[in-house]
Design brief:
The chain has a two-stranded antiparallel sheet with strand order 1-2. The chain is mostly helical. Helices cover 67% and strands 2% of the residues. It has helices spanning 2-7, 11-30, 47-53, 58-72, 87-100, 106-114, 121-135, 139-156, 160-171, 181-184, 186-193, 197-209, 216-236; strands at residues 74-75, 78-79. It is elongated. It is built from 13 helices and 2 strands, in the order H-H-H-H-E-E-H-H-H-H-H-H-H-H-H.
Length: 241
């Protein structure tokens, strides 16, 4: 029935409909694509404002901030690469979360594994500096992120002096902080990679002599490593005159 009614329409009406449809198609093709506007990341609100907004639940406020920050790089119509973000503002957001909830680990995880894993050396260095600065406030809970920072400095930045500084920060942290021995020993292996065999031998020998290594398997591994270092050192020593 609908086909018959369409066939009975006056030709002038059909012509107008065809012209209108053609014009609409042409307009759609020529219309410019909508412009995507990227909103800049604003500095974080003050801790006082966030406490009021969260009804004095700072831990909740810190977690909501983290969710909002992670959603920021997915704006309508665009996904922002981390290297395009303002890392000074990113750092301010992460620091505010730790200020609200010092026990919250995710800001440091994000600094080490998300924002610190970007292929951009200045941004990586900024995140490593933030992690190192934050570590001193709570070594017992924040050591994993500094240990990961040693890995980033060594294998991603290929900056052994920076890796050594971070590893030394781990090694010399408060002895009362429950940091695993392997994390405190990282500087020995960085020194080895730097070719400073003698310093590595001194530190490793002192560690074994201290009696702090109770685990027999770990002690055996470190003893074997010391023997290997001594062998390498003997090979590198200049011949006696």
């Amino acid at each position: 029935m609908a086909t018959k009614r369409a066939a009975n329409l006056p030709w002038r009406v059909v012509a107008v409909l065809v012209i209108a449809l053609a014009a609409q198609l042409m307009w759609a093709q020529q219309r410019r694509a909508p412009q995507v506007t990227i909103a800049a990341l604003a500095p974080p609100p003050s801790a006082a404002v966030l406490r009021v907004a969260s009804f004095n639940e700072p831990a909740l406020a810190a977690r909501l901030m983290m969710l909002w920050l992670q959603a920021y790089d997915y704006q309508p119509g665009v996904s922002l690469p981390f290297r395009s973000l303002d890392y000074a503002v990113i750092e301010a957001w992460l620091a505010r979360m730790l200020e609200l909830d010092p026990g919250f680990q995710y800001p440091l995880l994000a600094a080490a594994r998300l924002y610190g894993d970007v292929d951009d050396a200045p941004r990586q260095r900024r995140m490593l500096a933030f992690i190192a600065q934050s570590f001193s406030a709570d070594p017992a809970r924040r050591w994993p992120w500094l240990a990961h920072g040693v890995y980033l400095a060594k294998h991603r930045l290929h900056d052994l002096p920076l890796a050594l500084r971070l590893a030394e920060t781990l090694a010399t942290a408060d002895p009362a902080a429950a940091i695993p021995d392997w994390a405190r020993q990282m500087r020995i292996f960085v020194l080895e990679d730097m070719g400073d065999i003698e310093s590595a031998k001194v530190l490793l020998g002192g560690l074994l002599a201290s009696g702090k290594i109770a685990d027999s398997h770990e002690r055996y591994f470190l003893s074997e490593r010391l023997a290997e270092l001594e062998h390498r050192g003997a090979r590198q020593a200049p011949p006696a005159k």
